[in-house]
């Protein structure tokens, strides 16, 4: 199976080599981003919501205890928001701006390299099509050189090799676009949650809005 796959890659030529390299880039960034997301607790929101709820109920110490007990980004934002809100000597508006700035900085860090997915998702089908065009040109050149000794296998063999690059291009592009949309959606949801949590802590009578 592996030997057949290697033969197909070699048959596809330099375009398939490029596409394979791009797929390795996608896999590498995907694993790195998933690890980064897990470390930041992007998929965790329960503790932060409970902490914000306790704060709105007037239990600031309990809310702070819950927020401190978790290391995910949402909990950190709640923790910073509560400390800023309880600081009687500080400017609450300035504290909110600082927490918002901190949240934006963390979200921007999580968003890094997502543009690579978008670029590869757009380029892979075009590279595959480019390889197909080159393969078709080569197949018809061989057909022309054959003259009267036309062998249909020459054309058919050239065509399937040419179409191979399009198939590989699509095989790289489809999961890349899917991964990009998944990660991008998680960033959007995280951004919304952070804005909501900050508002819950700093906006007085939030529940009445």
What does this protein look like?
- The protein has 209 residues and is mainly alpha-helical.
- The chain is built from eight helices and no strands.
- The chain has helices spanning 2-12, 14-40, 46-56, 60-68, 73-86, 92-111, 114-146, 152-202.
- The protein is rod-shaped and about 95 Å long.
What is the compact description of this entry?
With about 210 residues, the protein is mostly helical.
Helix content: over 70%
Largest sheet: none
- What is the H/E order? HHHHHHHH
Number of E-state strands: 0
Terminal-residue CA separation: 62 Å
The chain-level mean pLDDT equals: 86
Number of alpha- plus pi-helical segments: 8
Shape descriptor reads rod-shaped
Task: Name the structural class.
Answer: mainly alpha
Provide keyphrases for this structure.
209 residues, 0% strand
Topology:
Layout: H1 2-12, H2 14-40, H3 46-56, H4 60-68, H5 73-86, H6 92-111, H7 114-146, H8 152-202
């Amino acid at each position: 199976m592996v030997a057949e796959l290697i033969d197909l890659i070699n048959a596809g030529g330099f375009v398939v080599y490029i596409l394979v390299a791009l797929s390795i880039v996608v896999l590498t960034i995907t694993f790195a981003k998933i690890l980064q997301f897990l470390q930041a607790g992007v998929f965790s929101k329960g503790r932060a919501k409970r902490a914000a709820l306790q704060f709105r109920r007037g239990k600031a110490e309990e809310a702070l205890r819950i927020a401190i007990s978790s290391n995910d980004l949402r909990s950190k934002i709640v923790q910073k928001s509560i400390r800023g809100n309880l600081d009687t000597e500080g400017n609450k508006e300035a504290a909110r701006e600082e927490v918002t700035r901190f949240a934006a900085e963390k979200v921007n860090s999580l968003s890094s390299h997502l543009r690579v997915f978008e670029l590869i998702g757009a380029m892979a089908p075009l590279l595959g099509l480019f390889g197909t065009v080159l393969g078709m040109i080569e197949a018809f050149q061989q057909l022309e050189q054959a003259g009267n000794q036309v062998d249909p296998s020459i054309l058919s063999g050239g065509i399937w090799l040419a179409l191979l690059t399009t198939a590989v291009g699509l095989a790289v592009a489809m999961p890349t676009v899917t991964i990009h949309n998944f990660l991008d959606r998680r960033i959007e949801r995280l951004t919304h949650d952070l804005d909501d949590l900050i508002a819950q802590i700093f906006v007085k009578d939030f529940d009445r809005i």
